[in-house]
Every structure is written in structure tokens, then in C-alpha cells.
Amino acid sequence: MKNQAYLEIIEDGQQDARAGEREVIGTSIEQMLLSDDNPDNANGRIETINYVTRVWNYLLNDLASEENHSNQEFKATLISIGIFIMKHMDKMRTNPAIAFKPVREISEIIHAGLK
Prior knowledge:
Elements: H1 2-37, H2 42-64, H3 72-94, H4 101-113
Helix pairs in contact: 1-2, 1-4, 2-3
């Protein structure tokens, strides 16, 4: 009986974490779309790059944490994706011709998977 209650608490905590992750990734998608729709807004672009970078910095730190008990293969895949995104954001800082599109598309897939 106690074990079932404990498992339900853990599951609720994981669902809350997924909901929070889904929310911040959703916000990053909205910001990327807005930035792409307003290519002349350099400040908006930098703010979006910074936001996406902060989101993925947080996610990468969480994935690397010993407290994250996700499957190792799953974590490795997400870490690889996160590294790609961080590199893409770095390139975007210096090259205004680089678009958010690949990062947005990846984010949309992850966002959908967090339901």
C-alpha cells in the first residue's frame, strides 16, 4: 500500500516536470516563430537565441544529473540533440542568415512527445 502511494507521488512529480518542460519548449517554439516572422528585429532574434539556449542548458544539466533516472539511451539521444541545438544557436549569433527552422522542428517533435 505504501509503495503504491509512493509510486503515485513520483509519477505525479514526473508528470509535473514534463508539463513544465512542455511549457518552456512551447514558449521557445512560439518565440522562434515570432522571430522568423520578424527577421528585421535583431533584438528579438537575440532574445530568442538566449531563451532557447537557457532552456537547453537547463535540459542538458538535468539530463546529465545523477538524479535523472531516465534510460541511458534516451538521455544520450537528447544530449546529442541538445548539443546540436546549442551549436546551432552559437552559429545564429554571428550569422543572421541562419534560421531557427531546424531547431523549431526538433522542438515541435519533442513538445508533441511530452504530452
